[in-house]
Amino acid sequence: MSLARRNLVQDKTRFMLSVLGVALAVMLILILSGFLNGMYRQISAYLDHAPGSIVVAQDGVRNLLGATSLLPADMDSLVKTRGAAQVVPILSQFVILDLHDKKVPAYLVGYEPKIGGGPWQLAAGREPRNDKEAIFDRVLAQQHNLAIGDTVAILDRDFTLVGLSDRTASWMTSFVFVRKAALEALLRAPGATSFLLVTPSVRVGEDELRRRLSDRSSIEVTPKSTMIANDLNLYGGVFSGPLRLMVAIAFLVGTLVVGLVIYTATIERQREYGVLKAIGARNSLLYRTVTTQALIASSLGTLLGVALAFGIAQLIMTVQPQFLIVFETSAVIQALLLGLAMALFAAWVPARVITRLAPAEVFRK
Amino acid sequence: MTNATFQVSQVTKRYGVGSTEVTAVRNVSLSVAPGEVVLIMGPSGSGKTTLLLMLGALLKPTTGSIQLNGTVLSALAENRLPDIRLREFGFIFQDFNLLSALTVLENVAIVAELAGLKSRAARQKAAAILTDLGLGERLNFLPEKLSGGEKQRVAIARALVNDPALILADEPTANLDSKIGHEVMRLLRRIAKEQQRSVVIVSHDQRIKDIADRVLWLEDGQFKEVTTMAIDPVCGMSVEQEKAISTEWDGRTFYFCAKGCRDEFMTKPQR
Ligand SMILES: Nc1ncnc2c1ncn2[C@@H]1O[C@H](COP(=O)(O)OP(=O)(O)O)[C@@H](O)[C@H]1O
Ligand SMILES: [Mg+2]
After folding, report:
1. Which of B22, B41, B44 to mutate to test the pocket of ligand 1 (most atoms within 8 A of CB)?
2. N vs C: which end of chain A shows fewer Cβ within 10 Å?
3. Do residues A243 and A32 make contact, with C-beta atoms less than 8 angstroms apart?
4. B180: CA distance to ligand 1 center in Å?
């Protein structure tokens, strides 16, 4: 029979408390890491889906979202002649929109619908056919009660909303797309280009193309993956520190809760453990009993925590769609391992108590 | 292992050092035969528990030796002792010390499992012993639902389950009222006799003297005078030889609780 299980069943309240402690900790850990993952995914969403493997920008600009870039004229034809299969020019600018008197930050992308660099998935509508049409991120539109056909002011001009893009939301800045010529006009910069999204030709290859462009001091040629990493660092880095700290605190709190519960349960039963020792039970058996108690509590708590995390994440994303919470398999496995680690840490101190128990003490009052 | 002989030679236990040194037991020798019930009495603080702990391999004597079946327990390495305690000794405590989360049956079975029995066999064995001790109706009760006497009977079952050579009991009646305490001790005596197990009881309860074959008096850590018990052949009561009325018949000495019993015996001594 399992003494561990019986002990737990006998102290139902305490048992429940420890399960709940682990569950809350695991839930918090999962939500926080899911939040971080979601944020990373949002930050890198545009470049992840954009064409090409190299990004050409103004000299010194090594990220997409954090800086303004203006390329010298005719750069696209130069890049093309040096060995690119495809060059997609975009003009982009971080702007503040006035949506019915609310200031809303947005990342405005001007692109050529025929070439690429626009939304990769439309939830509704179509791409802009002229310079008075725009696509809004679906969530951004929903939050401000905008529907297809509505008129929206972008900077000082009115646009008609013709499409809603999917997976371009972020709680920091959502994406708005217009034709490149429209943005040129808006910014009063005819012919301006911010970035070139470049696909090297198969013959030349990425490294060779970058080498061939290295003589141009007015531009910065960066692999797309580096560009993404820089964006993540710039925006995600601000949050990843505090989030990781919160994960560590959640782990600590979870461990403390199970640890304290198992510890007091052990202290309360130390006479019984002493009796077992006097009768002839070895320490190893008693360790196993205490550890099993911690493991049962933490496994149930972890499972509950994972379930809670999924439920709460769903709830958060329904109520606040600009937040993306992504649970990766690796994060769930990590949470399960953390739950296990909580149990082992929690069982450690009680095991010390048991080692120190002198069985002879059982005979004294 | 029921034909074990238990031999304690010149055992001394000192606690502490220097000015705080206490000699709890000094130069005690004792041997216990199979099936013999020995009662060690003495005032509080006389060293009874200390002696019992040494007998049960829970405390190493400062000097002297303790032997079981020729094995010198007091010289064994610490990590050998749990197994010896598990298989050779049964312990009965003053406050029962049952495991509160386990049922009566499980309290006994777990100790058999510790000694290597499979769960089912352990339960069967435990159930048989408990039933023999009159607890057949209580197998699935939790200890908190039992009376004191029942608890101590469970403790006796637990002490018996691994067929120990020697049962050690420390003040087993202290938490029982005198009638129940006496009954439980009589039960322990019956089993010791039936199964030829030795029993050492440490107690200051005068009322259980009659269940012992031998009563020893411990004072200041030493045995003072030895009282030998005998059974009155007429009424079956245990009597102290030194204080009893006695008579010789057919070359043997018989002891009686009172004159009436002797007179009755003499009418038909050949029985
Ligand atoms: N662990 C210990 N440390 C120091 N002194 C002890 C210890 N245990 C018992 N003693 C002392 O040894 C003596 C005998 O104690 P004990 O064996 O408990 O006697 P009893 O069981 O007859 O009451 C007492 O004077 C007691 O204070
Ligand atoms: Mg005592």
Report:
1. B22
2. C
3. yes
4. 28
Q: Are A343 and A31 in contact (CB under 8 A)?
A: no
Residue B2 pLDDT more than 50? Answer: no
pLDDT, tens only, A271-328:
999 999 999 999 998 999 989 988 999 999 999 999 999 999 999 999 988 888 999 8
Chain A residue with minimal CA distance to B48?
Answer: A363
Pocket test for ligand 1, best of B11, B12, B13, B15 (most atoms within 8 A of CB): B15
Farthest-apart Cα atoms in chain A, separation:
95
CA A350, CA B245: separation in Å to the nearest integer? 60
Average pLDDT on A63-69 reads 88
Type of residue at A246: M
Q: What pTM was estimated for this model as a whole?
A: 0.77
pLDDT reading at A243 higher than 90: no
pLDDT of A279 reads: 93
Q: Tell me which of B100, B123, B163, B167 to substitute to probe the interface with A (most A C-beta atoms closer than 10 Å).
A: B100
Range of the domain at A285: 2-43+239-364
| Residue labelled with tokens 């939500």 | A31
Could you give the CA distance from residue B9 to residue B29 in angstroms, rounded to a whole number? Answer: 4
Q: Which among B93, B97, B114 is the nearest to A280, CB-wise?
A: B114
- What lines the ligand 1 site, CB under 6 Å? B 15-16, 22, 24, 42, 44-50
Backbone φ, ψ for residue A361 (5° rounding): -60, -25
Q: What is the spatial distance between Cα B153 and Cα B185, in angstroms, rounded to a whole number? A: 9
User: What DSSP line would sit under A242-281, residue for residue?
Assistant: HHHHHHHHHHHHHHHHHHHHHHHHHHHTHHHHHHHHHHT-
What is each CA distance from B213 to B42, B52, B208, B229, in whole angstroms?
17, 18, 11, 5
Residue A212 and residue A244 share a domain:
no
What is the tens place of the pLDDT at every residue in B224-265?
Answer: 866 677 888 888 888 877 778 888 888 888 888 888 888 888
Inter-chain touch B93–A10, beta carbons under 8 Å: no
- Is A115 within a domain? yes
Give the residue, by CA position, lying nearest to ligand 1 atom 4: B15
Instruction: Note whether A251 and A211 are same-domain residues.
Output: no
| A293 and A336 belong to one structural domain | yes
- Mark A198-236 as b/e (b = at least 16 C-beta within 10 Å): bbbeeebebeebbebbeebeebbbbebeebbbbbbebbb
Task: Classify residue A172: in a domain, yes or no.
Answer: yes
- Return the sign of the alpha-carbon dihedral for residues A51, A54, A55, A57: negative
Residue type, B33: A
User: Count of CB contacts below 8 A, A vs B?
Assistant: 69
B260: its two tokens: 């009436």
Who among B85, B100, B158 is closest to A10 (CB)?
A: B100
The domain boundary, picked from A159, A187, A217, lies at: A217
Among B82, B93, B170, beta carbon nearest to A280: B82
The closest of B230, B229, B234, B231 to B261, measured between CA atoms, is B234
pLDDT band of residue B4 (cuts 50, 70, 90) is very low
